[in-house]
Every structure is written in C-alpha cells, then in structure tokens.
Amino acid sequence: MSNRTSVAAASPGGGYKGDEGAERGQRRLLLEAYFDFIRIRFLTMLAYRLNYYTGILIYSLNIGVNYFTWKAIYGQGESLGGFTAAQMTTYVAVSWMARAFYFNNLDREIATDIRDGSIAIQFIRPYNYVFAKMMQGLGEGMFRFLLFMIPGMALAMLLFPVQLPHDPAAWVGFLVMLFFSFLINSQINIITGLLAFFVENNEGLMRMKRVVVDLFSGLIIPISLFPGWLSSILKLLPFQAITYLPGSVFTGRVQGVGIWNVFGIQIIWFVILLIPLFWLYRAARQRLFVQGG
Amino acid sequence: MLYHLGLLSEYLKNYMKTRLTYRADFWVEVLSDLLFQVTNLIFIFVIFMHTNSLAGWSQNEVVFVYGFFMVPWGVFACFVNMWNFSERYIVKGEMDRILTRPAHNLFQIFLENVDPPSLIGSLIGLLIMAVSGINLGLPFEWWTVPALILLTISATAIYTGIYTTLTALSFYSDAPTGIIPLMYNIQSYGRYPVTIYNRAIQVLLTWILPFAFVGVYPAGLFLQREEMTRMALLTPVMGAIFLSIGLFVWSRGVRKYKGAGS
Amino acid sequence: MAAIDVQDLRKTFKVQKNRGGLKGAFVDLFKREYSEVTAVKDISFQIPEGEICGYIGENGAGKSTTIKMLTGILVPTSGRLTVGGYVPYEEREKFVRNIGVVFGQRSQLWWDIGVIESFELLRKVYRVGEADYKKRLDELVERLELQDLLNRPVRKLSLGQRMRCELVAALLHNPSIVFLDEPTIGLDIVVKSEIRSFLKDMNREHGTTILLTTHDLQDIEALCSRVIMLDDGRIIYDGGLDELKERWGTGREVAFQFGTAAKLDRLEQLTSGMPVKWTAENNLAATVWIPLELNVSDVLGRVVGQADITDIKIIETNTDDIVRSIYQSGSANKTEEAMLALSGEGAGHV
Fold first, then answer.
1. What is the reported pLDDT for A36?
2. What is the pTM of this model?
3. When you count CB atoms within 10 A of the terminal residue's CB, does the N or C end of chain C come out lower?
4. Mapping DSSP to helix (H, G, I), strand (E, B) and coil, where does residue C80 land?
5. Which residues in chain A touch residue B186, judged by CB atoms under 8 angstroms apart?
6. Is the dihedral of CA B130, B132, B133, B134 positive or negative?
C-alpha cells in the first residue's frame, strides 16, 4: 500500500501532499527512472552492431544518390531556388545526418503497445507514458548522434564536397534547432501512434506520415525549390521545422537575426503541437480506463 | 511445376478470403504504397522545373524509366515478399512449420506472403510508361510487349536473387541487420540514368548489385538509347545468374537454421 | 525395420556472448565472442513401427532439439538418423509427406479463415486425393467432434478446439509416423483425455508410430509403453514405463477412511516393526507410506479388523515423483563426482 502512495507522489500531477523531503526524494528517483529510459535504449541500440554499420552506409548512400542527382541538375547552372551547388551538397548531407538524430519509430512502438494491449499496463505504471516514450526516443537519438551522425558526417565530408559553416552562431543555432527537430518530429510520431486508439487502421496512416514528413520537411527537396503555391502552403505546416529550417541555418542561408526568427517558428510549432498531444493522451486514458479500451 | 502452380492459386484464394474480412486495410495499403511512388514522381517533376535535361535525359525519358522501374518492382513485391522473414519465421519459429511440409520451403514462404495490392503499382507503372511513351512519340513494335514481359521477368529474377541472398543471412543471425533497408535504398539508384553517377557507382550498379538492370538499362531499349541496348539484352542473363546465387545461398542457409526457442 | 533409428546424434549451437555494461556493449560493437553449447550429446535409440514412445525431460534437456532433427527441421552436427527410411534433412520434401507434426504452442492453421479452408489447402500441399481426403476428414471430424467448428475462423476457437483442429491438420495425409511436441499443453482435463484416447485409437487402428514430448506425465501413463528420458542432452533412461516405476519408484501409499476416530499412535502401534510411515489428516483419515520391498497386503492385514475402516484407496506412485527422484539422484551423482574430483585434486596437492 505504501508503494502506491509513493507512486502518486512521484507521478507528475498526482496531488499528494506529503512530507516535502520524502517527496523530493521520490521526484529525484522518478527523474532517474526517466534517465534510465535514455540509457537502456542507448544500450539496446548498441547491441545491434550490424544494424549500426549498415545504417551509416544507408545514410551515406542516400546522400550519394541525392548528391549526384543534384550535381547533374546543376550542370552549369549557378543557383537553384536560392541554393548554390555547394550549399545544396551541404544541405543534402546535413539534412540526412540530422534525420539520423531526430528519426525514431515511436509511432510504431505506441501503435504496437495499443494493439497488443500492453499499453494498459504501461499507463498504470508510475510514470508518464508519453514522456517515457520521448525519453526512449532521445536515447535512440543520442546513440545515433554520437555513433552515427558524427562519423557519418565525417564520411560524407570525405566523399562529397561538404562545406562546414565558419560562423559559430550557425553551429550553436543548428544544434539547438536540431534538438527541437527531434521534439517536433517525436510529437508528430506520438500523435500518429496514439491515433491507433481511435482509427481502425493506423498502419496506412503511419506509412503516409512517414512519406509526408520526408517530402514536406524538405529532406528530399528543399522547400524553396517547390512551385510557389506549394512552398507557401508548406511554410504554414509544421514539417519544415524538422529539416528545412535547421538545414538553412547550417548552410548559412539564414544568418544573424534570421536564426532567431526560424528558431521562433520551431518553438511556436513545438507549443502548438503540445495541444493535440495532451488532448489525445487524455482522451486515450479516458478510453482505456472508462470504456475499458 | 503443375503442383506448385496449383498451390499458388490455392494460396491466392486464401489470401482473398482473408483480405475480404478486412476490406478497409486493403485500400489503405494500396493508397499508402502509391503515395510513396508519388513522392518519387514529385521529385522528378520538381527537378525538371529547374532544368531541361538530366545528363542528357529529358523529363519524359526519366519518367518513362521510372514507370518501367515500377513494373518489375510491383511483380516482385507481390510474389516475393520477404520483408518480415526474420521476425516471423526465425524469431517466432514459423520456419519449423514450413520445413515439415512437402513443398519447397522458399516457395512456401513466397506463397504465404503473396501481396496482390503491389500489382497495382505495376499497372500504374505501365500507365506512366504509356503516357510518357506517347509524349516521346516512341514507336510500338511487334516485339514491344514480348520484350516487356521478358525484361520484367528478368528484372524480377534479379530482385529475387539479391533479396533472397540477403534474407538468407537471417539464418546465421537473428539480430536485425538493416541490410534489407540498405538494399532498398541502393535500388533507388537504378531509377535514374546511371550516367549521372561517377564511375565507381556505375560499376557497382551494373555488376555487383545490378540494380541498373531493373530500371534504366531495360527501359533504355524502349527509349531507343543505343548506348543501353547491349545492356538491356544482357538483363535475362543477369537475372539467371543472380537468381541462381540467391537459391544457392538460401539452401545453404536452411541447413544452418537453428530453430527458435527450445 | 525401426521407424526411427538414431545413432550417436549430436547437435551443437553457437551462442553469442554479450559483455555487460556500457563499456562491454561498446566492445561488442567491434568484437564478438561466441561459445558453443551442445544441446544433444551423442544419443542413440531405435523406435520400432507402431510404438508410442514418450520423450521426456526438463526444459532445455534437448527434447525439442531432438524432435527438430527427427522431423528434418534441424541438420545434426554429427551422427546418423533415419526416420521412416529417409534421412530427414536430405530429402526433406519427400520425407515429410510420411510424417505428421504437431507443435502444441504453434499453429498450423490460417488465423483468419475457416478451419476447413486450411484443411483444403493442406490437402493440396500434401497431394492427398479427393476421395481419400474426404474419407479421412470425415473419420477425423467425427472422432474429434469437430462438425460445428469447421467453418469458424481459427481465432474464434478455444484452445481445446484449436488443438483438436491442429491434430486433424497434422493427420489428414495419414502419416505413418507422428511427432507431437507438448500436444496437451494448457488444455483442460476433458480435452486432454479426449486427445489421449484419440491418439491411442489411431495407434491401434493404423499402427501409427508416435513420439511425443510432454511435461504432463499423465500423458505418458495413458499412452506410452516406452519412455526415453533426457537430461542435459543425454539419455538417462530408455525402457518400459513399468520398469521405470519399479526402478525409481520409492513406494506406494494407502489412504484409509475410518468410521470411528483412529489415533495416529494407535495406527503406528498396529504396524510396529514395519518400515512404514503414517500421516494423519484428521481423526477419520490417515495415509500410510509403504516401501517397495514390503507387500501392501501384509500391511493391510495388520490394520484391517483392528480399526473401523470405511474406505481404502491404494495410491500408485505418480510418474512425476519418479522423474523428480531420478533428477535428484542424478544431481546426487554429479555432486559425488564433483567431490571425487575435488578430493583427487586435494590429494595431488598433498
């Protein structure tokens, strides 16, 4: 029984008023639990080494196919959609490597939890399910950032004429924005995953989401190259905040105050996406506990 | 042979019966597959908004190559669907059941995973070829259809050979290797004119992982690209070679099968 | 000719070793270590046609590995085996037409469609003629009472119903040798005994050779004339069930019900001088344990007439107990060996 009380105290939003010191201790424990999610996922990723090697190759190949295609397109042309050939190469490389960090399968994991019913157990555990998933995603992202993105970027620089920015602001801006790319992409993934509660067939939805994110985030084609009407629509959607905006900062197409502006767009999307996320989470809990799934 | 064809029709019947119970899924799957193809077409269209030629290939030609690329891919994805082989047959141990039945084990796996919706991709590929072919004013000869069938079968054989070889690796390690997604990424090189890549990649795509033979080379035959004709005619040979390699590696792998659990 | 002939059969697996901790995981990323595990260690046995043989042992003793080699799923590391005249892994497709396999925990049937559809398909896979199939199916359906289930999808069947359908699926082609891996696992008693009597009848009528693994020793008692017991990849017993009980059984128990209260010390007094053990549940019920070397009738003779007995029940030793006692003595042997080894080493020191 005492266990259950401590659980209530530790869970965020559980309004238990107890001994303040004990409560602080519980909170610290919970925080450590969240860190454990990061650590365990990190270790899990490490366990699959073949996956790791081929992953680097896949990303290099994707950069390669895009690089050669763009090279052929540029031909003698100087600039396309505001990108010089050198900027395009850098953009392609950094966008794919950024994807290594922000990409995760949280939507699939959540949908699987829902389909096999194990989400019920996860919901009654003394932590916030969504937050825990986010932490697992972060563990995965950190693994790929350290062991994947950095060596991958080095490999890409060897193979293709990638230009790194000289301006420290571009570096700092890019890294901060990369973290927000992760947050926004994970938010979208979690929303898609939780929809499995309400949608008969989530599989198709998840596949479509994946295609839409890759296409509309500017990963495959920078947004400024789309026809005018389409690119103005895309600028009103959250996807550009995932790849296009940080990529623009890294390639130096956006500088100085501009960095603050694009960062602002990311933050706005991060906040806006919290609304459907919380709403869905609450609705999912409701459905699980009131209607029994 | 007759026995195996009979089994194919039986499995297809069962597939339809299963599928009719989940009708909504069917269309969602078709739609999301197509969306993926559309992305690639959008890419081509956007590129040609900014240039008139890709290493000497016009938009219609590149789209035609893409259309051809979709045809064998759809056939392959329909009849040779091994994406979840490791998880379903090795980790969950369904390979045990396969091996205790009196039909060729690889063939049984193909049969159990037939995915007819993929064929819709092939149909759309044919449509794209027709439209861009008409735009280009390509002639329709007596040999066009037989050649298309032969090249489609050969390209499907190349896919089958490569993916069977790689899937057979699951017999040695059940940890996810990520090699299959890697291949999937490499094969996308085959849909663009190989001449845009550097020499090393051209050699790779022609002789080692011959994905140029599932897209640009055979399509070059219909596009009357003289420089590709010889390669196009080589497609059936490559198909036979790679299919044989795949079957050989597979039979070696089956002997190494460890079974799941205790 | 023996239906199953196994000579010095061995199977070794390569197992990946994982180093612990973050550092270990990093090292694993670049260098892996493997170790070898021998699941089946040079076992030999023959099973004649028409025999029902139980293959028992603890989890991980090597039962499933053996079955998988016998059915052609696994290729042995070394040794010879023939099943029904074939070397299973060499001519797999021809070989499996003569055998039936049921894995209790895995389904043969299509999940979403009617059971009958799966049967139809299996008919074609096994190339069974229309007439033979119909006759065989009718026979099986009637025997296992499946008439009402045939059109239901498998996912809507209970475990017991599904298991009966699995049996039909494995037996449609009338195999001469049948392998059953935990065929009664998770089933209730009624279904269990139905399946047992079905298997027994099949064996009698068609002369089917059956090899089954089970943890349920009642299966063994009901079906098997012979038992092969495996421990740590080696056969530790191969012979009749009766002999097994005799060799390893420790004794029998007799339960008494009394009309009027019978005190425990009074009962002990009655059998004084005999190596028996009394336990009393209450004043009206008691049990006596009698070692094998003592005649049950001798003990009964002392008690009957002296006490007001309303009921007597002789409880046979359960095979469960037998297996447990074998394992215990097995482990006792091992510790003895270990002690010997230790003392030998000690002696060397001195």
1. 82
2. 0.78
3. C
4. strand
5. 61
6. positive
